[in-house]
Amino acid sequence: AICGHGCKFGECMGPNKCKCFPGFTGKTCNQDLNECGLSPRPCEHRCMNTHGSYKCYCLNGYMLMPDGTCASSRTCAIVNCQYGCEEVKGEVQCLCPSSGLQLGPNGRTCTDIDECSTGRAVCSYNRRCINTFGSYYCKCQHGYELKYVSSHYDCVDVNECVTNTHRCNLHAECLNTEGSFKCRCKQGYRGSGFDC
């Protein structure tokens, strides 16, 4: 292979055909290739063309990674987040994995939000709220029990008079109420129903 004009920064591959070394272009490989103008861009933030090559630079607060990307110089490991982090406008922010958790005063650990006391919890009238770490659940109110009724689970009234879980006096009768019970002294007796 003979290249009459020569190949300045490349090698002759055929009659007057040059194969340029990386970073060079042109018929005789004598022109510098501006890598900064290529698409996709080789640098994430700033690019500077050099003879036969290019250099990447990052904005303040970032450091250059081997692949040309810019990573925050204050990485999650340095910030020491409890559950991981994200970058927002160049700032590292710790994250909490659940909406029932909030970032603590130190900005690294997550603290529980008590949905029951803050009123964020939604439980039906016959259920009470039980707070858990990062969430909550609805438990049947006292006097109700969870039963599978008409193809779904629901909290139904416990009949304390039938289950014999009332504390009525021996001389009183038990009257079941929604979620509770009442005791009434039998005829010939008087008192609260618990004492006759």
From TrEMBL:
Q: Which UniProt keywords apply?
A: Calcium, Cell adhesion, Developmental protein, Differentiation, Disulfide bond, EGF-like domain, Extracellular matrix, Repeat, Secreted, Signal
Protein localization: Secreted, Extracellular space, Extracellular matrix
Q: Name one GO biological process term.
A: cell adhesion
Q: Which InterPro entries match?
A: EGF (IPR000742), EGF-like_Ca-bd_dom (IPR001881), EGF-type_Asp/Asn_hydroxyl_site (IPR000152), EGF_Ca-bd_CS (IPR018097), Growth_fac_rcpt_cys_sf (IPR009030), Nephronectin_domain (IPR052235), NOTCH1_EGF-like (IPR049883)
Q: Name one Pfam family in it.
A: EGF_CA
Residue ranges constituting the EGF-like domain according to the UniProt record: 32-71, 112-150, 157-195
SMART domains per the UniProt record, alphabetical: EGF, EGF_CA
Q: Just give the chief location class.
A: secreted
Which molecular function term from Gene Ontology is one that the record holds? calcium ion binding
| Matches recorded under Gene3D superfamilies | Laminin
PANTHER family listed in its UniProt record: EPIDERMAL GROWTH FACTOR-LIKE PROTEIN 6 (PTHR24050:SF24), PA14 DOMAIN-CONTAINING PROTEIN (PTHR24050)
Q: Which family does it belong to?
A: Belongs to the nephronectin family.
Q: What is this protein called?
A: EGFL6 protein
Gene that encodes it: Egfl6_0
